Amino acid sequence: MTRADLIVTDIGELATLASGPVPRIGRAMREIGRISRAAVAVEEGRFVFVGTEAQCRREVRLRSGGSRWSAGGGTVVPGFVDPHTHLLFAGDRAAELDLKISGASYAAIARQGGGIFQTMRQTRSASTAELLQSAEARLRRMAASGTTSCEVKSGYALTPPGERRLLSLVPVLARRTGLRLVPTFLGAHAVPPEFADRPDEYVSLLIAKALPAIARNQLADFCDAFCEPGFFTVEQTERLLRAARDAGLGLKVHADEFVRSGGAALAGRLGCRSAEHLLESSEGDRRVLASAGVTAVLLPLSPFASFAHRASPGREMVDADVPVAVGTDLSPNCWVESMPLVLSHSVYSARLTPAEALTAATVNSAHAIGLAGEAGTIAVGRSADFVAFNVPSAEHIPYRFGLVPERVYRRGIRVPSAEEGVA
Ligand code: ZN
Predict the structure, then answer these.
(1) What global pTM score does this model have?
(2) Centroid of ligand 1 to alpha carbon of 393 (angstroms)
(3) What is the pLDDT of residues 39-55, one digit of tens each?
């Protein structure tokens, strides 16, 4: 008999996402491991039983003092893994909306010293306490909408000590919130004004002064760079990423978002863990990503936030056998905290099927940030991170816009819902 300190019963549909090699590609993205009339049991933060309710009654006993919850016939899925956030920033850019509506692009606003440079100035001058407080509030809202793990990129200080300061906040936030956070060094988010005419020197500075200390102090798991005209060229990106790899970091690249800049091809050449955005990538790029096993991290709300009127190429990527993950792109340019909203747009805009979208937001996004052994699936032995929705099947999660979870559990402990005081 298995003992448990939490048993969840009356799950109408459980999607475990637990079978098959990771990352899932092609048709395998539609296999979400459904169990009807299911139950799960948890002991000390880990699943000890996953199966049918009938089996659970036979095999599992609740410890005295343990708790039991009926999911009321609803749907339970793994805790969402958000593989792409720019969580650490000060201020906001709500005032930019009028400019964007009048036709100014992300790059044009940045050239005038606004956009990312406004956020850079506010982030540089913010106190550490302010940065922690705003990021913590965002994480708590993300958790209430079902995110249990997420990536956190630096990239709004754009100086070696400033970037190190941002990355050093990530473990503090993980301790305060309980979320599993994966830090990524994005010092090459933009060329800072001090180096406006000398981007090569800025890249050299990052390689000489930022990477060694970040690697030595284990401040980041990955290095990312913004490979776009007006930001970093393919050559500059490659130089930085090769140095990052030599320093022991995994590699990511912001690629082909505004124009087809060659970022996807570079990701294939370097064997990056992921290439992100990819709005303008070509059929040839998809072949390169597929054969190199690079995960496409798609951010289906990001083009909306930039008024780009482009859809993320989700359907095309899956059909080309590229592993696909989806995320929020949470930033002052694209303030999205809800993974259920991302799931909806993954279907309605990027044309993933609901099952593919769920795979992309859980097991494949865990792979994209190096958490495949720990997060993104519901299986015995795994961390008990799961989300319950009051809907009859997993399809309803993307089908209904703005769905809010009934309950979220992280390591077997209930996360406070939005109504219970998440600011
Ligand atoms: Zn981004």
Answers:
(1) 0.97
(2) 31
(3) 999 999 999 999 999 99
